[in-house]
Amino acid sequence: MSAVAQKPPQTTYSEVPFSYKNPNKSYAPILALGEERNLILVTSKDETSGKIFAIKRLLSFSQARNPQIRQVPHENVVTIREMMLHENFIFIVYEKMRICLADIIALPIEIDEHHVATICTEVLKGLQHMHEVLNLRHGAITRTSILFSEDGVVKIGNFDQALWREIHSDTASDIKALQTVVQSLRLVWSENAHVFLRDMCEKSARALLKSNFLAQSPGPRSLEPHVLFATITANMPWRFCRTIVSKSA
């Protein structure tokens, strides 16, 4: 008796909540980060957990007037909590991450190949999810869009423009951008690493995840010391703020 083929599980999408409300009504600002102060750490006024979120403030554009943004939660893609359009600004509320890859690169320590393999594995899993499930091309993979939580979990962030961009046949551009980032992490590479870097010129995220080079990854928790060290030494400009909407906060 032949086995009955099982259908793959259906992907469940959820729309990102969107409103025209003033973010100051729902969130209490703590700190404004960066030179432009367009990234604001906040707590929700509707929750008592004290959990911190990050709000990114962007200038509005026509596609954002009535967006229908879908997302499927994934461990390697930063989760969007909600979006608001207010006073010609788009406010995107994200889960808060600890640091970015640029902070780790700035450390006075060498990044070992097995750590590079870990970072690549996690980012490629996130890109595979974006390309195949969300039908999105990121379009801006850089040292600052690869983010880390306190326990070393690696997630892709800074995909604001990707939310309004249809996927193109050149999703390979995301892989090539990751290749550029990876090449900047070390000066000396093993033969397995050279093969992996060459493969990044022509293979998809799914295919690259089968690479022998990635087999040496000990998992994201191995990055915890780097995240802790980078958190202590990172020097992003910040200031206390009392409002989310005003750019002069």
TrEMBL record:
Keywords tagged on the record: ATP-binding, Nucleotide-binding
Record has ATP-binding as a keyword: yes
**Which InterPro entries is this protein grouped with?**
Kinase-like_dom_sf, PAK3-like, Prot_kinase_dom
Q: Does the keyword ATP-binding apply?
A: yes
Similarity annotation: Belongs to the protein kinase superfamily. STE Ser/Thr protein kinase family. STE20 subfamily.
Record-level Gene Ontology MF annotations: ATP binding; protein kinase activity
Say which domain of life the source belongs to: Eukaryota
Residue ranges of domain Protein kinase in the record = 27-249
Q: Which Pfam families match?
A: Pkinase
Q: What is this protein called?
A: Protein kinase domain-containing protein
